[in-house]
């Protein structure tokens, strides 16, 4: 049995070409192994670029558009932030000369914290953002 | 061998040249095709390169390679897509003389018997040594060898003695 098994196993041998190919791959993989210097530099560079990009963003409030409600959620009016609360019934409004995004700005009588923007016949009620 | 074997590139080349055939044979017995065997051999030697441990002697390295190679192959064989794979093994290794079916039968043996049979019959290790290398009980190795031998006999048709 020993002889036959030996003979059988002797048939399973890699060729010189195979050995060479495998060794090259092993050595190359070894070289690439580990967290290389260039990855560290690359990571730092990426973080730095992202940080610069964020810090250079315009500080003015950018209107946020909600796809779910199909409304602009926050707007800026006279340097203050207003957020959308819903439709207004159109009563007790006082027209101003201001316009935002093509809509006329109305103020609600007796309320300083809210405005109504009338656009295409719709009364959109905005209130000062929380924390303002 | 006082210091790590892996400290020098020359040492790696020497170990590769010395043991590549052995690792290749072990892997082929499990995987039965050239491509997977080559991959497994590469993984085994890459793991050897990654090793930080100190090997006590040449036998220690050899034992580590045998154990690692068979573990890597066992993991590969476990993949579901490997289980149903059928390959013309003799064609794979370019064997033209198909009269001796021992190799084909050896490859058909269940995985657990292959390493033991290979180590006992081909490499000439004793059952105690195999138990030490594979970190298993001596009695387990003896039973695996005995059952493997029985299976071989049955599969070959009792012509082996």
Please identify the structural class of chain B as seen in this structure: mainly alpha
> Biggest sheet of chain A: strands, sense, closure?
7 strands, antiparallel
Which second-level CATH architecture of the largest domain in chain B applies? Orthogonal Bundle
Strand content of chain A: 25-35%
Global outline of chain B: globular
Overall mean pLDDT score of chain A?
81
- Spatial gap, N to C terminus of chain B: 41 Å
Main β-sheet, spatial strand arrangement of chain A: 1-2-3-7-6-5-4
Topology:
The complex is a heterodimer of chains A (132) and B (161).
Chain A: H1 2-10, H2 16-32, H3 37-55, E1 64-66, E2 71-77, E3 80-87, E4 93-100, E5 103-108, E6 114-119, E7 122-128
Antiparallel strand pairs in A: 1-2, 2-3, 3-7, 4-5, 5-6, 6-7
Chain B: H1 9-31, H2 34-50, H3 58-78, H4 80-83, H5 89-92, H6 102-108, H7 111-122, H8 127-134, H9 138-156
Helix pairs in contact in B: 1-2, 1-3, 2-3, 7-9, 8-9
Q: In summary, what is this structure?
A:
The complex is a heterodimer of chains A (132) and B (161). With 132 residues, chain A is an alpha+beta fold.
């Amino acid at each position: 049995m020993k002889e036959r098994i030996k003979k059988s196993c002797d048939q399973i041998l890699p060729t010189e070409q195979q050995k060479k190919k495998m060794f090259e791959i092993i050595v190359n993989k070894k070289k690439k192994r580990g967290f290389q210097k260039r990855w560290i530099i690359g990571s730092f560079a990426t973080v730095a670029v992202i940080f610069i990009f964020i810090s250079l963003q315009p500080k003015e409030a950018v209107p946020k558009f909600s796809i779910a409600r199909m409304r602009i959620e926050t707007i800026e009016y006279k340097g203050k932030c207003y957020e959308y609360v819903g439709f207004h019934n159109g009563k007790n409004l006082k027209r101003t000369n201001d316009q935002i995004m093509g809509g006329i700005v109305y103020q609600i009588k007796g309320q300083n914290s809210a405005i109504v923007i009338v656009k295409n016949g719709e009364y959109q009620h905005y209130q000062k953002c929380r924390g303002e | 061998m006082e210091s790590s074997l892996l400290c020098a590139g020359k040492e790696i080349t020497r170990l590769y040249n010395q043991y590549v055939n052995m690792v290749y044979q072990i892997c082929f017995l499990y995987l039965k095709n050239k491509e997977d065997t080559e991959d497994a051999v590469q993984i085994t030697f890459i793991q050897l390169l990654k090793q930080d441990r100190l090997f006590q002697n040449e036998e220690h390295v050899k034992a580590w390679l045998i154990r690692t190679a068979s573990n890597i192959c066992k993991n590969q064989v476990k993949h579901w897509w490997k289980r149903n794979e059928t390959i013309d093994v003799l064609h794979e290794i370019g064997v033209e003389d198909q009269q001796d079916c021992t190799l084909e039968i050896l490859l058909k043996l269940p995985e657990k018997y292959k390493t033991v049979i290979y180590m006992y019959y081909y490499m000439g290790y004793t059952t105690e040594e195999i138990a030490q290398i594979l970190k298993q009980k001596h009695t387990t190795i003896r039973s695996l060898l005995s059952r493997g031998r029985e299976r071989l006999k049955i599969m070959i048709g009792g012509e082996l003695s």
